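Thread: Newbie trying to understand structure tokens

Hi all, I'm a second-year student working on a class project, and my supervisor (Dr. K.) asked me to get a predicted structure for one chain before our next meeting. I've only ever worked with sequences, so writing a 3D structure as a token string is new to me. If someone could post the tokens and maybe explain what I'm looking at, I'd be very grateful. Here's the chain:
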Amino acid sequence: MKLILKARVYDVARETPLDFAPGLSRRLNNRVWLKREDLQPVFSYKLRGAYNMIASLSAEEQARGVIAASAGNHAQGVALAAKQLGLKALIVMPKTTPEIKVNAVRRLGAEIVLHSNSYDDAAEHAHELAQEQELVFVPPYDHPLVIAGQGTVAKEILQQHRGRLDAIFVPVGGGGLIAGIAAYVKYLDPAIRIIGVESDEAPSMKRALEAGQRVVLDHVGIFADGAAVRQVGVETFRIASQCVDQMLEVSNDQICAAVKDTFEDTRAIPEPAGALALAGLKQYVGDTGATDKELIAIFSGANVNFDRLRYIAELAELGEQRETLLGVTIPERPASFREFCHALGPRAITEFNYRYADASKAHVFAGVQIRHGKREKDTLIANLRHKGYPVVDLSNNEMAKMHVRYMVGGPAEKAENEVLYRFEFPERPGALLHFLNQVGERWNISLFHYRNHGASVGRVLMGIQVRSEERESFRSFLNDIGLPYWEESENAAYLMFLH
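---
Reply by user tm_fold:
Sure, no problem. This is what the structure looks like when written as tokens:
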């Protein structure tokens, strides 16, 4: 508490507004507020903790210069803090860091080293350089002064919000922000619920609290790259264990829907990690039926690559449950296509892919707009089945959303022994060619789909012809190349549209 009250952040950071969100409030039947950390000079709250620690260094330490490892927002905070104080700054960033963040750090005058493809490798290299060059390492979250700097967000919230406050929703990566907010709020008003929100692809704090100790996740997805951490900090875990009331996990679809919601109320666009808290708030209201509550979500950052917006927009309607994706089998005869459209009723069709299957049937991949969420979707599917249409709900089928919707085609008769896999590889120049070189010539590629989403990972769907006696050696090969992969040979979307 004392460290937060004494934190030195306002030499560079701003006291950001707590904005009422009228549209969200009406839709959710609660009073929803957004804490606008996107309005900081580096478009993220990370500046607070970085500056507080660097400003607290001794003169001898400042003269040596500082170093940090970061995928973006912490890097910008350290770079601006060092520039403000006239210090040397070296930033180690993964090669997969979005270009907008690399350029922002470079503009602030810091030296940049791009190293490896993961934050963990970059951090290890940063520690090595810190020893070699005698620089002071500035951690992104696991330090009392960094936590205290982030805790000033809570101090502002309690000054800005008058009257009863029911819950604050906080995005969680390594835990620095939620540790600072929770420590301050619980000291002054323990009745306010502190609810952390993580991507379901990187729930490191939730798993740690469930286990009663810090855990290391085997793999983290980096769609919400600003909060993609395999292991939370020692100090942040200790504080969260004592002060955090609940942890929530949200999907990428839910995050994208929250990006859209934020834009509609503020005309500002969060990065995926910046929308985590609002996605969790919406999930909480839906799960609990809460009404007439005072709820705050931290809008934590807005450093998003422009070319990611296409992908975010595509998933937003699914996350909001305003669109459903269906795989439907219809009779192959005159007028059947028109009859199926009649069966959908007076609904807007957002996507339609039709593929002849054989002389008796055809497959349709359809996106259909809905207004009343899961209840309407279930009714629509039940009605279609009642009219004799076999239906598969593809709304939560990751492969269907990422790949199949763009490549509906049908089977390749000569693609014998085909197995289907999804892969993720680091998205950087030459990465796709390197991936293909790793696959080599041992097995034939029978299907391939890649589409750039403006993210730090590339996503590939690949069909490969592997004879049954080679399956074990093929799986060994997959494990050796060291890329995340998922077998999709039994995926309903594949069997319906591509197999």
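A couple of things are worth pointing out once you decode it. The chain has a mean pLDDT of 90. Residues 144-160 form the longest helix (17 residues). Feel free to ask follow-ups in this thread.
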